[in-house]
């Protein structure tokens, strides 16, 4: 028996509470919210530099979202909050079909899934990215929104560090990615092509948003990287 997707109301609860907390603790900004479709399945594909990225994007999204979060994170003090807000545990080591299946179920009920194509925390420049977002977009028939997450970690800070209270954090939603996939190409090649198109679109949006908002990406890979 497959594991059911988390209930939509959990993401709604997490969205309301998370946004309230971020607006109290930080100088948060969100841009491009009208680019996120008001209805239908959506994938928020975000860059990943700091510990709070997932919570920040989910809270600032105009719609409640379920993020794919590494299973190890559910064993930390954040675990109860992740479960209560309907986030989806992902085991990268085994190519987690259960997690992907739950994400597809969310998309098929016209929900929103958040994902980090880079797979773990780093510079956030999308030098490399996995194919999970492309697989979900194709199989879930979802609109892909490239999402820049800025300000959550500065150069030299630890992987688990939190930004200083009242520091400026920005989430910028980009224009939907339109995949250009020729007919008749094999499935694996099709997935590779789609993944590279998503990577390039997100990399371009993150670089442009970083320049426009005046918040540089970290210049290093954080010490103590845990891949969440």
From TrEMBL:
GO terms for molecular function: 1-acylglycerol-3-phosphate O-acyltransferase activity. InterPro entries: Plipid/glycerol_acylTrfase. GO terms for biological process: phosphatidic acid biosynthetic process. Pfam families: Acyltransferase. It comes from the Bacteria. Residues 42-152 form the Phospholipid/glycerol acyltransferase domain. The keyword Transferase applies. GO terms for cellular component: plasma membrane. SUPFAM superfamilies: Glycerol-3-phosphate (1)-acyltransferase (SSF69593). Keywords: Acyltransferase, Transferase. This is Putative 1-acylglycerol-3-phosphate O-acyltransferase. It comes from Phycicoccus elongatus Lp2. The lineage of its organism: Bacteria, Bacillati, Actinomycetota, Actinomycetes, Micrococcales.
């Amino acid at each position: 028996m497959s594991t059911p997707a988390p209930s939509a109301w959990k993401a709604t609860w997490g969205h309301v509470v998370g946004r309230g907390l971020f607006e109290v603790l930080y100088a948060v900004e969100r841009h491009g919210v009208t680019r996120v479709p008001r209805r239908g399945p959506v994938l928020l594909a975000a860059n990943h530099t700091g510990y709070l990225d997932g919570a920040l994007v989910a809270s600032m999204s105009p719609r409640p979202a379920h993020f794919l979060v590494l299973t190890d994170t559910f064993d930390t003090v954040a675990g109860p909050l992740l479960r209560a807000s309907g986030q989806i545990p992902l085991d990268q080591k085994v190519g987690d079909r259960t997690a992907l299946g739950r994400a597809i179920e969310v998309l098929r009920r016209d929900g929103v899934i958040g994902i980090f194509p880079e797979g773990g925390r780093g510079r956030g420049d999308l030098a490399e990215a996995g194919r999970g977002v492309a697989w979900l977009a194709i199989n879930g028939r979802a609109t892909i929104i490239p999402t820049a997450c800025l300000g959550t970690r500065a150069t030299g800070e630890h992987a688990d560090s939190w930004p200083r209270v009242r520091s400026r954090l920005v989430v910028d939603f980009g224009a939907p990615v339109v995949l250009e996939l020729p007919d008749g190409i094999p499935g694996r090649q099709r997935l590779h092509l789609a993944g590279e198109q998503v990577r390039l679109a997100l990399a371009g949006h993150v670089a442009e948003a970083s320049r426009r908002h005046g918040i540089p990406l970290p210049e290093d890979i954080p010490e103590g990287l845990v891949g969440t």
